[in-house]
Amino acid sequence: MLRSQPKAVWAVAFASVVAFMGIGLVDPILKPIADNLDASPSQVSLLFTSYMAVMGVAMLITGVVSSRIGPKRTLLLGLVIIIAGAGLAGTSDSVMGIVGWRALWGLGNALFIATALATIVSSAKGSVAQAIILYEAALGVGIAVGPLVGGVLGSVSWRGPFFGVSVLMVVALVVTAFLLPATPPAARATTLADPFRALRHRGLFGVGVTALLYNFGFFTLLAFTPFPLDMGAQQIGLIFFGWGVALAVTSVFVAPRLQRRFGTVPTLLVNLIAMSATLAVMAVGADHKAVLAACVVVAGLWIGINNTLITEAVMKAAPVERGVASAAYSFMRFGGAAVAPWLAGVLGETFSVHVPFWVGAGAVLLAAGALAATRTHLRHLDDEETGIDELTDEARALTVGSDS
Fold it and tell me: Which of 388, 396, 323, 395 is nearest to 119 (CA)?
C-alpha cells in the first residue's frame, strides 16, 4: 500500500510530518520561556490557546478557500503563513508578542492541516482507512521527532525551536511546490455554512463533541505537564519523544488491528476510559516526576489509537464531502484544545498542580459518555467502504442539485 502511493500523497505526507513537528517543537521550551520572560504558566499556556483558537475558527474557511483556489495553492498558502508566524515568534521579546504570532501560525496550520487530510484521503490508493493510517503515521512521526529537535534547539535558546520550524517549513514548501501536481478548484465551491450543515448529522456531531472533550484532556497533558515536571528542555524533549514514539506505533500498527477485531466504537470507548484513568493517575502523582514522565509515555499509546480511529470515524460519520467533514470536526476539536492549556494554567496557579489533571480526566470520561450516547448513529462505521462512498456521492449530487 505504501510503495504504490502517488507522489502527490508522499509530498503532502512529508509536509505533514514537518507541520506536526511544529506542535512538539514548542513543548520543551514552555518552562524556559516562562523563566526568561518572567511569565506565569497561564500566560505561557496562551501560546497554545491563541494557536488552537485561531486554528479552530479558521477551519471553517479552509473548505471555502480550497474549493476556490485549489488544494495545492491552499497548502502552499498555509505553509507560507506558518513560516512567517514561527519566524516572527522567535524574534519577539514578550510573551504576548509570541502569543500573537502563534495565532498567525494557527491560521496557517488550519489552511494546511484540513487540506492535507482531505488531499491524502482523496489522492491515496486503497481504502479510506489506509489513507488515514498514512496521514496518522505522518502525524506520529512529526510529533515524535518534534520534542527531540525542540529539546536540542531549546537547550541553546528558547528562540531556537521557532526558527527551526520556519526552516523546516521552507523545506516542506519547496517539496510541496515541486512534487504535488497542480490541483484545480472544486466543481462546487463550498460555503461557510457547509460545516454547520454537516453537523446536523447526529453521528458527525457526536464524534465532534467526543473529540472536543478528548482534546481537552489531551492538551491538558501536552501543555501543562512541563511545569510540574520542572526539567530542562532536553529532558522534557526526551520524555515527549517517548510519548510521540508510542503514539506513532499504536496509530499505525495497533489501531487497525483492534478496529478489525472489536470494532471502531468499542475500541474508542475502552481507549478513552484508559486515557481518563491515566490522567487520574497523573493527578494523584503530580508531585512525583517519575510518575508524570511514565504516564506521559503511556498516554501516547491511547492517544495514537484514539487519533486514528476518531479521524476515520469523522470521514465516515456523515454523507458529506470529506473536506467539509474535516473542517466541521476540526472546528469542534480545536475548541477543546484551545481552552484546556489556559484553564490548566489557571487551575494550577489557583489551586494546585493536581487539579488540572483531574479536570482533564473528567473531560475525557465525558468524551466516552458522548460517544456511547452517539453509538446508534455510528453503526455503519465498520461497513464496507463502497457503501459509504456511494452515500457520500449521493449527498454531493443532492447538494449540487439543490444549488443549481
Answer: 323
